């Protein structure tokens, strides 16, 4: 009985995935638009305006906004998966916990990329442990606050 129920549920997921596949691929790229736009603007600000010589603390804003855009992407994906019945609707606190964990994971990945660029490409993106911890905190807080607003609005 339990095995049959699991099989039906699994078949439903495969069926839903098959039907929604073109929509999910399109939606996936659409959901990545906020971080892509922010990253592109950041690169233009560096290349065209040498922004860090004008505003040395621009990094603070970028890490916070980066967390916000990853939070937007995570909320969009969560809502889509709930709509497609691939995830249950979670309580606010639990969905906010998972969203914050995802944003923190991406922030750690970003800091690793900065470290590798500094080590192997000779860049100077990390000014030390205090800078790295601040970047992680700002990105995580940006994602948490964005998630709180977006999830609270749609409870």
Features:
single chain, 155 residues, mainly alpha, 6 helices, 0% strand, elongated, disordered N terminus
Radius of gyration: 19 Å
| Helix-strand topology string | HHHHHH
Number-wise, the strands total: 0
Q: Averaged pLDDT, please? A: 87
> What percentage of amino acids are in beta strands?
under 5%
Number of helices: 6
* Structural class determined from secondary elements: mainly alpha
Helix content: over 70%
Short description:
With about 160 residues, the chain is mainly α. About 85% of the residues lie in helices and about 0% in strands. Helix 1 crosses helix 4.
Plain-language structure description:
- The protein contains 6 helices and no strands.
- By secondary structure, it is an all-alpha fold.
- Helix 1 packs across helix 4 (58-83), helix 4 runs parallel beside helix 6 and helix 5 (92-121) packs antiparallel against helix 6.
- Residues 1-11 have low confidence and may be disordered.
Topology at a glance:
Layout (H helix, E strand, L loop, with lengths): L1 H30 L1 H17 L1 H4 L3 H26 L8 H30 L7 H25 L2
Helix pairs in contact: 1-4, 2-4, 4-5, 4-6, 5-6
